[in-house]
Design a protein that fits this description.
Blueprint (H helix, E strand, L loop, with lengths): L1 E9 L2 E7 L4 E5 L6 H11 L10 E7 L14 E8 L3 E5 L2 E3 L1 H8 L3 E5 L8 H15 L1 H51 L5 H13 L1 H11 L6 H10 L5 H26 L2 H18 L2 H67 L5 E11 L2 E9 L2 E2 L5 H14 L9 E6 L7 H14 L3 E6 L3 H6 L2 E8 L2 E6 L2 H13 L5 H11 L1
Parallel strand pairs: 3-13, 3-14, 8-12, 12-13
Antiparallel strand pairs: 1-2, 1-4, 4-5, 5-6, 6-7, 9-10, 10-11, 14-15
Length: 509
């Protein structure tokens, strides 16, 4: 329920502050005074697109029982604020929120019916109405519908998986061939970590082997002078241990080098160069030997996965065939229940529609392939007329009747209903019927309605008049006497006769 509205600088309104009652709130006043502009401020607060937006608008409302959102913290009393400077910004409980998020948050609780809007009669919306009516009185149906939706969601996921497998099948042979080629190439070379560094070292040594041998041969003569040098040290009575140690180390190094040269002479130079070439080719392709080895493991897993594809495909096809049959069975049960409930709704609607001077409504069911809502497509006919051919007024009268029919619990608030000239361009009898229907709906909805008819105004729980003096609009909450005068104005014009005033009094009693 909306409890309070405060705004500044809204088109022709300087400042407005209003407190609202429960039930039916009607706005009347001369054409062009600003009724629709004022209603637009309420609509804008809930994320609807409107032409006029106030520089500041605050809306206070009682939090709907089921309203919750992980991104926002809500108290029992909510405040929605819109600010317009360079751009329009929205806030809920002081927290910034996008227009789209605001509209989605309140869409279950705030409904807007305009003569220009012919929505709500697509198949999905009609099925929602029938399903809600059934679920409210049949727990078994509610459970079956929930099971269908859950299984259908999983079914669609599996259908997508199978389609992906079939799409991949055409490319599978090529992928297997490529993966096998890549794997065999790496496995043929069979690289080892740090192998390249060792081979490069050997290559470097091979390139110097002849020079090493020549240098060692030329230097070998040093050992022929070893005894003579030691004798010099002895004669000089000096310690020759450092020289001896050096010569022993030199002898050990020469022996080690001779062993290395012997080993290098056994190495096949071509094999080393070929091996380095293979490792270099892997590095060029995969950036490093480590990445080549990692890529090999990826391709192994990929080939293993390809081998399971055919088995997965077979299992998926079997599952989908069985699940399709099960979903069709559940869908048929849902459809049968829906058609019975639609017949019940048609009979209930008949009385409402007669009151509204409209022909009976009938639900037309057409079977379709499996869908999220089952196997039904639903449309409605009003007498012999399709909904698309109805006028805006007829369309909204049908919507009012359907809303009244589908109220399941009159002790529970259904939220806020905003009506824009719902009774425009209708006859007196039709105006009376619409007023009675809206009054009935106001037992479960807080309804805001713009009206130019006396009957709806007379039914109001709270009556406001919007007037305009010069270029400035204002709104006033009427007392009983003011309501009679305003209803008389609607009946008889700016200077109502005594008969118009008397008729207004009768409407109020």
């Amino acid at each position: 329920m909306i409890e309070r509205l405060y705004l500044r600088e809204l088109v022709t309104f300087d400042e407005v502050e209003l407190e609202f009652d429960k039930g039916l709130v009607v706005l009347t006043g001369p054409s062009g005074a600003g009724k629709s502009v004022l209603m637009s401020a309420i609509l804008s607060s809930f994320g609807h697109t409107t032409q006029g937006v106030a520089s500041l608008c605050e809306l206070n409302l009682a939090k709907p029982v089921k309203l919750q959102n992980d991104a926002y913290e809500f108290e029992n009393e909510l405040t929605i604020k819109t600010l317009k400077k360079e751009k329009l910004r929205y806030f809920i409980e002081g927290q910034k929120i996008s227009k789209k998020a605001l509209a989605e948050l309140f869409s279950p609780y705030v409904k807007y019916l305009s003569v220009r809007d012919k929505g709500d009669f697509d198949s999905e919306s009609l099925l929602e109405i029938i399903d809600s009516s059934l679920a409210a009185k049949d727990k078994g149906y509610k459970k079956a519908l929930k099971e269908y939706k859950k299984r259908y969601t999983n079914y669609k996921i599996k259908v997508t998986e199978l389609a992906k497998i079939r799409e991949d099948e055409a490319k599978l042979a090529e992928r297997i061939e490529f993966a096998t080629y890549e794997l065999e190439k790496i496995e043929r070379i069979s690289p080892q970590l740090h192998e390249e560094e060792e081979l490069l070292k050997i290559k470097q040594q091979l390139s110097r082997i002849d020079k090493i041998k020549d240098a060692m041969h030329a230097a070998a003569g040093i050992f022929t002078y070893e005894r003579s040098v030691e004798e010099v040290y002895r004669l000089l009575d000096k310690d020759a241990s450092v020289f001896s140690e050096m010569m022993n180390q030199l002898r050990a190094d020469f022996e080690e080098t001779e062993t290395l040269t012997d080993e290098l002479e056994e190495v096949n130079v071509e094999e080393v160069l070929d091996r380095l070439s293979d490792l270099t080719s892997l590095k060029n392709r995969y950036n490093s030997i480590e990445e080549a080895l990692a890529y090999k493991e990826v391709k192994k897993q990929e080939l293993s996965g390809y081998q399971n594809i055919e088995q997965d495909k077979s299992m998926l096809e079997s599952f989908l065939a069985l699940e399709f049959s099960e979903l069709v069975i559940i869908g048929n049960r849902l459809s049968q229940a829906r058609q019975k409930e639609a017949f019940v709704l048609e009979n209930i609607l008949k009385a409402y529609l007669e009151t509204l001077k409209l022909s009976p409504l009938s639900f037309i069911f057409t079977p379709i392939s499996l869908g999220e809502k089952g196997i039904d497509k639903v449309e409605v006919m009003l007498g012999n007329s399709k909904m698309a051919t109805l006028s805006g007024g007829e369309f909204n009268r049908v919507r009012l009747a359907l809303m009244a029919t589908t109220i399941n619990d009159k002790s529970q608030s259904q939220g806020v209903l905003i009506l824009d000239e719902i009774d425009a361009n209708v006859s007196g009898d039709e105006s009376i019927a619409i007023a009675q229907m809206i009054a009935e709906l106001s037992s479960v909805y807080q309804i805001f309605a713009i009206s130019h008819q006396p009957h709806l105004s007379a039914q109001a729980d709270q009556h406001m008049v919007v007037t305009k003096e010069g270029i400035v609009s204002k709104v006033e909450i009427l007392n009983d006497e003011g309501r009679i005068q305003e209803i008389a104005r609607i009946i008889g014009g700016e200077n109502p006769t005594s008969q118009a005033i008397e008729f207004a009094k009768r409407l109020r009693t």
